[in-house]
Structure formats: structure tokens, C-alpha cells
User: Fold these one by one.
Assistant:
Number 1:
Amino acid sequence: MEQALQDVRVLDLTHNVAGPYCTKLLADYGAEVVKIEKPGEGDGARRMEPFLGDDPHPEKSGLFLHLNTNKKGITLNLKSKTGVKMFKELVKDVDILVENFEPRVMPSLGLQYETLADINPRLVMTSISNFGQTGPYRDFKATELVISAMGPHMFVEGEPEREPLKYPGYKAQYLAGTDAAAATMGALFGSRATGEGQQVDVSIMECLSSPPEGASWIINYAFGGRDPDRPGWRRPGGYPWGVYPCKNGYVFIWGMVPMFWPRTLRWLDMPQLYKDPRFATPGARREHRQDFEAILLSWLRQRTVKEVVGTAQTHRLPCTAVYRIDEMLEDAQFKARGSFVEIAHPVVGKCTYPGLPFRLPETPSQPQQPAPIIGQHNREVYCGRLGYTEQDMARLRKAGVI
Amino acid sequence: MPRLPLEGIRVISHGIVYTGTAAATMLADMGCEVIRVESIQRFPAWTRGAVARPPKGMDANFGYADNDAGEKPWERFYSFHAMNRNQYGITLDLNRPEGVEIYKRLVRISDIVLENFAQGIMDKLGIGYSVLKEVKPDIIMISASGLGTEGPYKGYSTFGTNIGAVTGMMALRGYPGDDMRIRNPAPVWSDNVAAGTLAFAALTALHYRCRTGKGQLIDLSQAETMLPHMGEAIMDYTMNQRVAKPMGNRDPSMAPHGCYRCRGDDRWVTIAVSSDEQWQAFCQALGNPAWTREARFGDISGRLSNQDELDKLVEEWTTMHDPYEVMHILQKVGVPAGPVVTPSDLYSDPHLKERGFFKEVTHREAGTHLYPGMSFKFSKTPADVRMPPNCLGEHNQYVYGEILGMSREEIAQLEEEQLIGDTYLPSVS
């Protein structure tokens, strides 16, 4: 079946989250991605939670399985001379190389962009790292928590009297992988047009400070001269705004600006509150927040999330369910749109995964192929692409190259 | 200047608020000729301010350049300036047939149309995909809505925070053991995700068109762009039927791992000790105080099960230091640590400075400031701010004159009829 990026060849030297998400996007839209792992231990994500049945087996990490769909997997020891030579052979006929080592690693292997560009001038080499390929923090160490702290979001998250709060999971790394995929496609377009590739340097720290949101927090300081505070869950502005409990779960309502007040009263069918002096003006409403919340909470307690969201939306009030993961997987909209897919894996079996982040009507197929078992495509790639024989393979295996 | 990679690709952007706007900016940074279409008849809330002309009074100037809304507040609003560089800005009244006709002339010579209006607006204006496809058969159109333009909840009204709520992110964002009610975030993370994904979608569709000559309509749901970013929590449920709970700043396999108070007012540092070697280095950097030698902290399982006590002891040390000091002390010995930064910290950060992240921009109506830059650096065709964020209708002469070939008289006529202009009509609030 035709796919959008089927004519794009990618060499994937990534591990953990940011790099693999970038190449997952390319692979899921049809690029031929060959993922190179260290013989034996493989990608670090193979040792990251969650594991099927909590068994820390390298083929059972749900994170790894999710991030590496539709890729081919080979092993190669880049610390051996033969390994480096083989890598250079593979670089010859690819469009894109993505890596997310610490910036000192590729040059230490003799695989800096300039060297690879001599072998393949049209190569787009995307390098994702915590702090970028240059600058005083280049070799600093970071984890998701540490890098999150160094963007403008974390300081404003959490309760004012408590410590700032990191987002759940690997949000910073996923975002960098997303931005890197877009930038890689831009560079590929240029390379196809001119025959000349280049290196794309993506710093996770800079992704956090870029448009839309990071840049908005930052420029607000340049414009207004004051840093934001950490507002916490109770905010002084208009309402209804926030997370509210219903009969069987929670909803989130974004009704902080005055235009939503009349809609709210129509929704609740409480026209008498219009003229109630406690709620007649935005200022009065601010003072009588507790009175209104008492009314709203008792109204919500008698209704299900579904009823609340459905009726609020008919009045064009931005109200949605606050899903737990299990509830989200049952959401009617996601189900109807095919937002999740089932993929079968030889070790883990059939399982539901997040689907494509968007579908192309011209090439609608969803990810089908599970993440590779470590070294699964060695024969296909080394024999098929590089012309090695079975004897060569045995020799390379023995020498620990693959 | 070297040729930028996407030079020659023309994009019509109806980006409002964050998602569409930031995606268009990314494409513009890489060289697309982005034409941003606005109108003097309609003020889309939260793009150039909450309202076109904020009422005088307390806080009316907050968010505006130099705390002054000025004569044309819409040219001085912070979040508009965070994006929208490198684009041509035109105005056009798409509610009138004459406007739609001119718009179609522009579509005829464009490659990509992107919009994130409320569901159905483009169709109502008579410029939905079925119409545009007639005008330009290989046009790529991307409609980015909250939950998608198809499906039982199509047309639902959502803001970014709602997207966090329906994708499970909000329920997981919290301190361990806290109440669901306090989990509403300050920022709206999903717009960052949707913007990057939208730019990727546009270029993927463009790549396909280059090979096949075919355009298409992409119905992009911002909620769906978030789902892969929730991958590990989703997989834990589908593999193990385990419903994830908020972990705050903790990690299942690292300790110490947290955010610790520092010297100063509301100053914090993050530390993540990810191996036994790092733990040794950490203890040494602190001068090996007695508690670091306690047996209960001797290995990772001990540190994980005594985390509350451990965190208190770590914080006793961090409170004696500035967060940047802690970062340097620990990074020197190879332990991951970094300050929880505020925007003013970022402006004085030596790393961002050396990498040239901030760009000095002079804007006709907003003055000169340092603007945050791009999330990527190209080695041969570096992105820069070629044009400041556009003023309303700033490039009407260029786009209608140079690109569409209209005469000065024709353009003057459009102004006369208020099809175009550079100031919101007095009736616009």
C-alpha cells in the first residue's frame, strides 16, 4: 500500500524517547527506518517501564514497543573499527540520519556530520540532545525532570506553597522528537531540491522555550518586566473554570472570560442568577465565587459526566471530561475516529497502541508492524543491502560487531 | 543569504491563538512564504489580545509591550509577538463574495492552507476544501480542531486545557496522593504538541504531493496529536490493566529525584541521581556528610524506600545554595541537576546566549525587544527573524500588488470598500 514517505530512507541511531519518537513519526508515515542498536543490551528504552506483567525483559517494555513501531532493527557495535566501517557503508544511500547521543559521542566515534557529508553530501543529519551541540551546557547531564525544569513551564506548575511540578511521563522529550521530525522534513525538502544536506541541531531546552507556549511565557517578561508566579488551582479570574466533580467522574470547564457567563446560566437553566446582585458583574462574581461554586457543585453531583459535557457543549461552553487512562480508551470520539490501533508482537502478543497523530486520507494505513526484536533485521539489511554472506554474518557475530 | 529549504512554498495561514499560528511560524522560519490572512471586521480572541480594545483600568495594560496597550493594542500583545515572525500579513473580508473571489486567486497560486477556526467556519465562508480543490486541485489543506472535524463530538468547543483533560494528561499531572480538583494546569501543553505535529503533517503531505501530484485535506485533531505523547501510560493500561496515578516529581527507579527548595524567594533546583556511581559522586560533592553514609541510603532500593527522609536531607543542603550553584556543583561531578527557571533566568542564561537563542527584533508598533528563537538550528541555512511579527494588513500592498498583480488604484478601491485595511473597524471590540 502506498505511503506518504515510502521513498525516504532513514538510519536511526536513537535511544530512549526523543530520538525514537522522531523516527517513529517518519516510520509510521512510511519511511524505511533502520534502527541501529548496541549488540546485547540495545536501546535503553528496553529497560524502561512499563513491562508486560512487570517482567523487565528487553522485548516487553511498553515504552519501547510504542516508540519503535514500523522500524527495522539491526545491531552494530560502533566502538569497533569494522562497525564504524559498516555504518559508513549504510550512510551512503540514506536520506536521513537521526541520533540523540550526548553531543560528544558522534565525534568521538569519528562520525561527525562533516565526515558523513563527505560520504553522502545529500544527508540530513538530525541530532537531538538536551542542550544542543554547542554552548557551555553542551556536556551537562539531564533527565526528563532536569530538562523540564530548564524550560518556562515547570516553574508555573503546581501549588504556590509547594514545589514546582513536572509533567507526567516524558513530555519534554516527546515534544523535542515532534519538532525534530518537522525540522527534519524541512531539511529533507531542501536537500531534495539542491542535492545538499545539512545538520539539524535540536536542543530539548530550546524546544521548551519556543513557540507557541514557551515563547509566550518568555516574551511576556520582555514586554512586562515581571516573572510569572505559580498560581495554583484556585485562580482569581472568571468562572466556571477548573476541574469539577460530577456523579461519576470529573469535568474540566474553561469558562474564565465574561462571554461564557451567559452561556453558563443558559446551560444550568438558572436565568434568575443574571439579576442576582452577587453575580451581576465580573467583579461581584469574583467576590461570590464560593456561593456560585456551591450551586454548581450540587447541580453537577446529580449528573453524569456524559450528561454534563453533552449539555454544556450544546451551549458552546468548553467543557470536557477529565479522563483517567482507562476512561480515555473508551471515549466515543477516539473510538469512532480510530485513534488507537491493535498491533501484534511475537513476544507481547496483541495489544492496543496509540494510533497515528493524524491520518492522511490519500494514504490512510495505520501502523501495522511491531517494534523489532533486537537484531531482527540483521540478515535483511546486511545481506540484502550491503551484500554480506552468511559466513560474513557468522564472523561478525563472533567478533561482537553485530 | 543561502536559500532556505522551503523557499518557493506558499502557505496561507488562518492561524489563531496558538496551534495554527505556531505551526505556520515554524514553516515560515524554514523558508515558506506564509501569508497570514486576517480581517478588520473580526477580532479572534487570544490571538492579538483578549479583546481588540481593552477597557481602561487596572490590569488593562498587562501583557502589552512595555505595559502599555497603546493606540493599537493588537500590535503590542505578547503572545502574538511570541510567534508570527517571517510572515506576510494581509487583511480580507471573507464574509463578502468579493473577498472570497480575491481569496481564491491567492489559493490558485498557493501550496498549503492551514486553519484552526471553530468547526465549520471555512465551509460557512464558502472556502471549504471542496471549493478550494476546484480552484487548486493539488492544494493541501489542514484543519486543526480540538477533537477533529469528524466523529460524534465534532464541533465541540475546546481550549488547550480541555485537550489535556480528555487525553489523560490532566489526571496524571499532580502530586502523589493529591485531589483531582487541584490538577488543572497553568500552561496549556497540548498546543505545543499540536503545533509541531501540524508542521510535520504539512511537510509530510507536501512530500507526498511532490511525488504524486496529489493534494489532500487533513482533519487534524489536537487531542489525537497528544495520544502518542501519553504512550507509556496507555501501554501500561493496555498491557497490564494498570491505571497510572500522578507521581509528582518522583521516578520509579531513581532517588534522590526531585525538586528542592534553594536559597532565595521561591527558588528551586531539580536533581536526578540515576545510578550508584552518581550517588557516590553526589555524596562527595556534598562533602560526605554523615547521613550519606547511612546504610538505608546505601543502595537504590534503600534510597527509594526511604525517599521522604532522603529528600529532607537533600533539601537541607540545597537551601544553603542558589539553584544555579547547585547545578554547577553537581554537573561538575556528572550528576544531572538543573534550576527551575523563570523567564528572567532564561534571558540571562549564558548557554542560550552563546547559542544565539534570543533575537533582537524591532517592531514598528512595539519597539525593540529580545524575542525567543527557534527549536532547531540548521547548519547551512540557519533560520533567523527576517521580518518581525506582522502588523494588521501590513503587507496588503505587497501581496495584492506584487503577488496578485493588482494596480494601486484597485488596492485603493479595496481599502475604500473596507475589504482590506490596517485597523480594526471602530465597531470591533
Number 2:
Amino acid sequence: MNKVISLAHGDGGELSHRLIRDLFVKNFGHYKEAMFDASYIQLPANNIAVTTDSFVVKPLFFPDCSIGKLAVAGTVNDLAVSGAKPLYLTCGFVIEEGFSVNDLEKIVSDMANEAKAAGISIIAGDTKVVEKGSCDGVYINTTGIGIIQRQNVIPNFKSGDAIILSGTLGDHGIAILTARGELGIHVPVASDCSSLNSMLEDAVQAAGDVRIMRDPTRGGLATTLVEIAEDFSLSLVICEKDIPVKEQVQGACDLLGFDPLYLANEGKAIIIVESEKKDAVLHALHMYPEGKDAVCIGKVVKTEQPSGQLYLETLLGTKRRINRLAGVMLPRIC
Amino acid sequence: MLETMRQSTNPDICKAMLEAVHKKAEQFQINNGRLPVYMEVCGSHTMALARTGIKQALKDSVQFVSGPGCPVCVTAQESIDSMIGLAKDERTIICTFGDMMRVPGSTKTLLEEKASGKDIRVLYSPIEAISIAESNLDKEVIFLGIGFETTIPILAFLVQMAVEKQMTNFSIWMATKLVEPILRYLLEAAEVQLDGFILPGHVSIVLGESSYQYLPQEYGMSGVITGFEPAELLSGINKLLDLSLKKEAAIINDHPSIVTKQGNAVAQELMHRYFYNSNEAWRGIGNIPSSGMDLKPEYERFNAKTKYQVHTVTVKKTKCRCGEVIRGMISPEKCPLFAKACHPLHPIGPCMVSTEGSCSAYYHYMRESY
């Protein structure tokens, strides 16, 4: 196999064939699927969740993670927080001419490992090679298919419902920013990127049902909670003193002028649950390394608010409104 | 250090200090029949006071006035237009801090110029500009030099590197500002009644505690140098209130682990080696003599203003009142454009753009609290 990807790897000829056979089929175990233009899968009718996401992160490799792991975990988590059991993933690669085959192998192998860890199969794929300069290394799109397990998709929120966060904020955002090497600082923090489907399945089971789950990726905790508040006409309050942030992440934020509330996470979930079920959910989360720092950070204070609002109770006990992030420039983070 | 940081964000310590501030402010009100008025000079303090909820918690006890310490906000419109104009030249690579990207020029922003294909780069570390220049010898790399005494030594360091490397394709567009001239201007103009200053933390690291003695000695005005965490801010406000109650004027260094008496001598020497005190135009104020720094004649070869002629259009007049906001004359919500025509996604004045801008602080943290 050539050491770098050339346009010929994407033209459907011999090199394309070898790339697919030696790299994708081998890693993803696609021997049967590769014989047809589509994969045949069987799912219970009327109960299917589908999600899609494109990954353009820079750099492609960062502490404890790569775009490959991210492309699997990101889509798995979108299904998991929607209350679906993830089963299958498809992936589409756009590769820049000249890209290192070794790096591509690492990325594909990371995808295969994460798929195995999450208990899902990657069942279809596509590869395109574009001219040098037309994309930045590798872009990956993944589409996830899962079975909906929850009965009530539209949640029935009540005042007093607890807002649970599954761990520390901003690890992924800061890991990516510092891995870019542009800041000239080293922050000893790894990305939190991981598939949360097993943990979240246990959490939901422990509670019987939850109101809603979301993963606070791009835009962070603040943006995700503002969306929930607006979409479901809620007034939410979170407490600054209860929000877990690693010291090194807080330090980096202070230095660079970022707010951890808006930093991206790739292995965290927000779970809103009836307050009596809060402890059961926390107990279930604490059983997993990804959920060991899970904590209740706030509550739903009012429902049926014509315009939903998110408030932060500061350390001093005052409350201030939290809005969507507006106009702060961050590098591509997912 | 970590222990100090934990204490400075400890809710119990903060609440006890807040209580003390409330009591002293109440006494001030009994003595004087009005609230004490303190100006936070630095934009980061404006942000910190709003973000931590201190401004909201003290809204009936202490009046805070935002000062002229946000570098983008005090930059004159003509100067911003010139900087944006530089980007139009195909021979240039513009390097800048992120805050400048969305500042509205009279016609376009740097972000819009970048979208239309101009080479504009946001740097976290200005030193990157030197390596960009080294690897783009066919282009002129221009660094947009805005900032106060915190940033000026870094700009001087860039010039030092450019001198040592004998660079011919690197220059700086200087639009820097100095703290002392603007504080003197504000006190002499007396447009706002003040009882003291919360002095800038970062600038003080460079200048040192002793550089503010003109405030008590010539103007009978107090100032406290403080940090940015809630307990540090509250401690500083407490000490200002002590002075106000005793009717004494003094400079208190409440940040002694970071700020020394004489400041950073190396940084000061570097500034004065390459730059001289120049006249600078301030937004909404106009020219103030010796209120900024520019390249000395012997380093003129690194001065983008002499290397590049920029033709700017006449400055577009808007109803933006940033000029009054930075002088502490009005609070942001008094501007007719605030949160209506002017908001972070569509800023009309620089105070709404910068992460240190008063209008941005008010928009994000102060509009709706309860």
C-alpha cells in the first residue's frame, strides 16, 4: 500500500479496492457487506432512531483520542441521550490527497475499537479523496441507527426536577485547544471523549424513566440547557458552586478568557429527572469511570414559561441569566 | 497558590465579605447621603464584577462605573478603519488578537474581509507573527498593536525579535494606550463624581504599586489594586470603603503576591527602549497628549503607518454612545441602541464586541438578574 493517499485511492480502481479491502473491511469486519451496495439489517418496525454528524476536528489526534474515536462516540451518544439503544453506524470519509496512510489506519482502528467498546457495528461506508487543499486531512461523517427504548419521548417536566451532570466540564474543549499547539501552554488534561450508551441505559433503568437527556457538546452546558429551557418553556437554575470543573481546565480558562460553561464536552450527559429519582440516577452513574464525578447541579424551578430561561446562581447567591454563546471565536472542536 | 485560589472562590468567605461591604456602604450612605461611586478601570474587572454577581449583589450599596480599560473599546473609529483598510492590500498578512475581528469599521469588519479571502490571522500569542513573517517572505506581516501597558511590553518584544532577525517584512500598526494620561483626563474633566478607583490588575503587574501615587497626591483620589476572583474583588472594595469612610486618599495594593511596588522593570525598560510616548486619539474623547506609545524614529522600519498609506472613508456616524460609556458617563443600558440595534451578533460599537467591553458585560450578565 502507498504511504500517502492519492486521488487514485478514490477513483474506484485497484487502489480504491485495496484501500477498502485492507483497511476498512479488515477493521470493521465488513466481509459480507462489502459484496453489496447496501447493508441489510433487521430492526423492529416503527421504533427506530436515526442521527447523523460530521466530524471536522483539528487536530486529528489529541490526548487519549482521535477524530476516529470521536466520530463513533459522538454519534453513539446522540442516540443514547435520545433514549435509543445504538446498534449500527455508517461512515463516510472525505480524505485529502497526500494524507498519511499510517494516520488513516490509526483513525480507522480507533473507530473499530470504539465501536467494539460501545457494542455497535459499523455496517456501511464510503471513501472519497479530494485534491490537496480541498479539505483539511480527513473529514468523517457517521450516521447512527438505534432502537427507541423509551415510551414517552415528549417529557412531562415538573418544578423541582433535578438537573444532573455526569462529570467535569470542558475537558474536551481545553484538550483540543491546547493540542493545537497555538496557545504555547501545556494543560495536563485529556479529552473526555467516550461512548456513554451503557452508562446511560443503566441510569434510565435505575430511575424507571427520566425527563430528558442531552449531551453538551458544541456550545457546552450553557447552550444545551438554554435550548432545553426554550424548547420546553422551562425556567432552570444551576448553581455555580456545584458545577464540577477540573482545576487545570479552570486555570486554562482563566488564562485564555474562556468560560467552562460554554466549552465542548464529548463524554458528558445532562440528565433531567424527577427529584425523588435523583439519587438512583447518581448511584448508577457513579458505577462507571465516565460518571464518577456525576453530580446534581440545579433544578427546574418553573414550567410553562412562555420564554424559557436559564439562570446561574453565583457563589454569592445572586442569580444571573445565561444566554447562548454569542460571537466568541473558538477553533473547530468537533 | 491553589489554596489561595480556593479561598478566593469559597462561597462562605465571599458571603461574609459581601456582608461587610454592605455594612460599610450603608455607613457611607448615612454619612454622605448617596452611594459610594467606584470606577473599575480595567475591562476584565468590569467582566469579573458582572460575571461573579458582585455588581448585582451590591446594586443598592455601591455604584460601579466602568472605566476606559478595554483596549478595543477606546480605539478611535479612524484607527479601526485604518486597520481594517490594511487588510484590503493583497500584499499583507494581518495578525491580530481575536477581539478585533468583529469590531465594526465604517464599512466592514476584519471577519468580513477574511471571509472575502483576505489573509487575516487570529493569534493567541503575538510572537507567532514573527514566525508567520519568516515563512512568508513575499508578504508584509502586520500586527495590530492595540492594548495598554499589559500588551505594550509584548509588542516591544516583537520589535526586539524583528531587530535581531533583521526582518524586513514585519511591522506593527501601533494604537496603544497608557493608563495614567486617561485617568488624569477623567479626573480633570470631572464628568463623573468618583470616590475611588479599582485599579487594573494586569497593568499594575507591569507598572507597580508606586506608579499610582499621583492619584492621592494630586487629586486626593484613592485606588486599590486587586485581583479578579470574587473574594479578591470584595476585599478590594472593602478597603476602598474603609478609606472613603475615613475620608483618606491612598493607594492600597491588595494583590501583593502578584503586584510589586516598582512593577516589572524588565518590561518597563523594553517598552521605553523601542517606543516613545505619543499623542493618541481615544474614542469619544479625541487626542490626548502623550497618552499612547509609538515606535521611536530609529525603529521606523517596523512602523506599519509609515510603510502603508491607508485611505479611509469618512467615519460613519451612528447613535452609538460607546464614547460616553468608556468615560463612565453613562451605563450601557442608557444607550438607545443597547440590546436593540446593538447586540453581540450585530455590534455597532466596540464595547459590545470585546470580551472586556462594558456593553458586552451588561448584555451577557446584567440585563436580566433576579
